[in-house]
Amino acid sequence: MAEETVRELRSSFAAGRTRPAEWRAAQLKALVRLIDEKEADITAALHDDLAKPHMESYLHEISLAKSSCKFALNGLKNWMKPEKVPAAITTFPSSAQIVPEPLGVVLIISAWNYPFMLSIDPVIGAIAAGNAVVLKPSELAPATSSMLAKLLPEYVDSTCIKVVEGGVTETTELLEQRWDKIFYTGSGTVGRIVLAAAAKHLTPVALELGGKCPVIVDSNVDLHVAVKRIAVGKWGCNNGQACIAPDYIITTKSFAPELVDSLKGVLERFYGKDPLESTDLSRIVNSKHFQRLTELVEEKKVAEKIVYGGQTDEKRLKIAPTILLDVPQDTALMTGEIFGPYLPIVTVEKIEDSIDLINTKTKPLAAYLFTKNKKLQQDFVANVPAGGMLVNDVALHVANPYLPFGGVGDSGTGSYHGKFSFDCFTHKKAVLIRGFGGEAGARYPPYTPEKQKILRGLINGSFIALILALLGFPREGR
Prior knowledge:
The chain is α/β, with parallel strands linked by helices.
């Protein structure tokens, strides 16, 4: 099945169907129509998979996907143009350009936590770049996967863009094929499997993974505003099931009690006295992840650190927003990515110590800082390696199409969003064009001392050597 799918797409790509700007624009416009006409279907699927609140579905998935399509449509013609670049003195006279060309047939493996947005957004980049595409949605979000498999062929060119559903078996079969690029969003564990499979064919890979995203909170902030932003970035992003959601907070010992009290007040205003009954909180994706999360806090030395929340409802797969204070660093909660509604607070003596603490862990996908201290801000930007960072807010950097979104180290490789999505699925081909003039005899053997002198001068940028070379010195017969 997978082999046949790839063969069909290679045939379409080889025929040149995906290369014209008109084809690319038509597919992007079709995606905009799909989003407009099927918003109710998309919202229903997201609710089936994650009990995702309708407003959250619109803000974080539907509207962002539509904006991404429109951004690509507006930029497409300019992105496709060859970029003229200077030619070197050693190739004078000549012209040079960088020509963007599609990679070919690409595989996109999506994630379950934002199953619509994380499927469509890379597809937009692949289409804009002129590729044929296979989308493999996550089987852990079956309603969205089924919806994409049904609706996409109704809107886009199904000879060039295909959806393949299934689980581990189907994904494994897809990974056995030769692709021109693989784009994977998900866990580091599966990311390593994808990378190993790609290595067999020397296939380039973009990995959008995760990590423990830290939030430094200084004591000089507007605490009410900061806490609201942290709360909506944690629990308002799929109840913490987001790769860019805050994973833990770092603050000073002296400021922690005030921060905890403020978080408690904001959470009660957001989600009520019984957050398990709130319709504004997503549920945990499935029983396996529910079990994983509950086990993280069952250990006594973790459970006793809960200062707010902790309620669960296994039948409905609900876990309430939970705050913990000074959990031991050697626990599973503090060593692995949480990807759920727990938010531990780590305390330090001085806020400046937080940077060193972050750097004892693997490089995060996102890092956040709340402060009015410009020196701390400069040190944070300069000394914390992260896929991206945001000062005095959470998660909003992903909404700027002029910023690349991607990880570093364990949090991923490669980036996308906006033009970076186009670049992700494009080969930038170097093209140098010369005529038959400007023949420099010094470049050809035998390499006499005179020729070597002129060649060395050319390489070192000597104008005199260039004139001598163009005049044909040293003279020699044909």
